[in-house]
Amino acid sequence: PIFYPFLDSFSQLAAPQYPKIHLYNEEQVLSWEWSSANNDTRPVVYRVQYKYITSEHWHDVTVKSVGVNCTRIPETQCNFTNARFLRCSSVSLRVRAELGEIVSAWTTGLWFQYYQNVTIGPPKDMLVTPEAASLLIRLSSPFELPRKCGIVFVYYIHYWEEAGVQQVKGPMTCSTILLDNLKPLKVYCLQAEARLSLQTSRPGRLSNISCYETMAKASSKVQQVALISVAIFLVLLALSAHLLFRYKSQVKYWFHTPPRIPSQIEEYLKDPVLPILEALDKESSPEDTWDSVSVISFPAKEDVLQTLESER
Ligand SMILES: *[C@@H]1O[C@H](CO)[C@@H](O)[C@H](O)[C@H]1NC(C)=O
Ligand SMILES: *[C@@H]1O[C@H](CO)[C@@H](O)[C@H](O)[C@H]1NC(C)=O
Ligand SMILES: *[C@@H]1O[C@H](CO)[C@@H](O)[C@H](O)[C@H]1NC(C)=O
Ligand SMILES: *[C@@H]1O[C@H](CO)[C@@H](O)[C@H](O)[C@H]1NC(C)=O
């Protein structure tokens, strides 16, 4: 009898070996190996089956069941990337080889839970804007997550000053991140990372290193405008203080000038017997009118005279 190393005693066909599940972003691929020392010219094909961890029954991976055909396929891999698996539950997989009527044993023990096992790639795009002693970072998610499981992306920024110690900011749910409290006019290098918002989430792949220089602290336009305004204000203030000091007496005079009393009225006030006041007396009491007028006019007039005297 001939010894065939590829046949096992139970099924007479070796089962697929070294199965692997590759989970990266949205990619979901099951692959395996099969050492073909086979002398049979008939092509070997493979069958993949799946079941949810809670279920008893295995199902073929077909277009009808999950949208992907991995039944009687010649390739040593099954690409589930667009399969309609339930992402929130654990999926078990098994695969076997088939050669005509002969089938191998199932290769089992493969299971994954997408959100537990997936490796998340770096954020798709990263836009960095240097600002005053800070860097504004805008990230875009590695891919669109379905909303079903309530899981979102969280972001981390690994950053360091050139030849400095690395620091990490995160996790942050917002994809716009301000790295502040940096030194002005210094070069900082950074890498972005995305993970899933799960306690057990695996570390994500880091983006390539890129470096940026922060801007000076008082470099923003608003600050410049504010500085110029303050400077102009101070110059004007100094100028007016100087003028005030130089022309002190004139200014004092302007401020003390009382409301002008027409000279004719002054005459009347000095000589209360004139007819105009008699006319006024008919409507109001003489004391009231007299008091109010005298209080305003005479001290004011004295002031003016004093001021004029002091100028001499
Ligand atoms: C393959 O099979 C043929 C006969 O079908 C035999 O002559 C040959 O020796 C076999 N080769 C191997 C490597 O077993
Ligand atoms: C799946 O694909 C293989 C070849 O790629 C084909 O032979 C087979 O019939 C397909 N199965 C179904 C159920 O469509
Ligand atoms: C998925 O993660 C679980 C727990 O860490 C592990 O036991 C299992 O082997 C992983 N599956 C794959 C395909 O990596
Ligand atoms: C990151 O760097 C590698 C090699 O240096 C390059 O092949 C790849 O395209 C870069 N990725 C991005 C997103 O720039």
Key phrases:
alpha+beta; Immunoglobulin-like; six-stranded antiparallel β-sheet; 6 helices; binds 2-acetamido-2-deoxy-beta-D-glucopyranose
Short summary:
This protein has 312 residues and is α+β, with helices and mostly antiparallel strands. The protein has helices at 114-117, 221-246, 248-256, 263-270, 275-281, 286-311; strands spanning 17-24, 27-33, 45-52, 59-60, 71-73, 77-79, 91-99, 102-103, 107-112, 126-131, 134-139, 153-161, 167-172, 176-179, 187-196, 210-213. Among the domains are: 17-117, Immunoglobulins (Immunoglobulin-like, Sandwich), CATH 2.60.40.10; 126-213, Immunoglobulins (Immunoglobulin-like), CATH 2.60.40.10; 218-246.
Reconstruct the topology from this structure.
Elements: E1 17-24, E2 27-33, E3 45-52, E4 59-60, E5 71-73, E6 77-79, E7 91-99, E8 102-103, E9 107-112, H1 114-117, E10 126-131, E11 134-139, E12 153-161, E13 167-172, E14 176-179, E15 187-196, E16 210-213, H2 221-246, H3 248-256, H4 263-270, H5 275-281, H6 286-311
Antiparallel strand pairs: 1-2, 2-6, 3-4, 3-5, 3-7, 7-8, 7-9, 10-11, 11-14, 12-13, 12-15, 15-16
GO molecular function: cytokine receptor activity
Domain Fibronectin type-III: 7-106
Keywords: Membrane, Receptor, Transmembrane, Transmembrane helix
